[in-house]
Request: fold
Amino acid sequence: MSADQVWGVWFSAASSTLLPAHRHDHAELNLIMSGRLAYRLLGQEALLEARAGQLVVIPQGMGHELVHCSPDLTLWVIELRGADPLSWAAEPRVLSPTAAWRRSALLAIRKLWLRPPDEEALALHTRLWRTFVSLEVATPEQSLPLHPAVLHAKLVCERLGDANLDISGLARKAGLSSSRLAHLFADQLGITPLQYRNFARVQYFIRSYDGDERNLLGAALRAGFGSYAQFHRTFRQVCGTAPAVHFKWLTSTARLDAKRTLGSTARSAALRAQPSSPP
Reply:
């Protein structure tokens, strides 16, 4: 088994997951943290539907289109270069991993968001691959909706309006104590509120930045960062390297097309694409 098996890892929400029909040269896995989604598989009649706690498997080369996502949707997306040792990844399906397996997988997944392959990342890729090889499934658990305070805090983070928003500010807006909000957020989404805020800002920046260094500060400020220093520090925390180094890697690698992978549509476009009732 090899770290090269893991092709890319990123975090998505309802505001950035609706994409046109497409296919990959590798298998795609969706670990649903909250909400519901439905894929239309090209050439097939039935929808592939999943909810919080489940793992969606889309085999290598299979065309698919995300046709519905609930407003509270959050998920981790993992692309695998090859699925030969993973018999369960050969056909489209929805699996229900055990809670213990999800916790184990998340320890590596949440540290690999668009991370270039440095020494630490390669070790995490290997650990994640071994976790997939030893997938444990169970009887599907009942899917619980996001706690209202978690959903409110999540949407506040996505609005990117307050550069100085911290956990205390988020908790006040959500009507909970800081510790209670942090516990609920991590339990339901797999990351802390401030990690989610930082992911949302960095993701917005990557989608909107045109690569021209003269426009870098403006793009950072539009993404919700209060200064270049804050942007640079947060970007390094999230992606493991400086912005310039990271963008050089993104543009020179064939691993992923960041703007297409992370979505270029706004929430309004995503909502327009949804059917009037959930699948």
Notes: The CA atoms of residues 104 and 131 lie 7 Å apart. The radius of gyration is 18 Å.
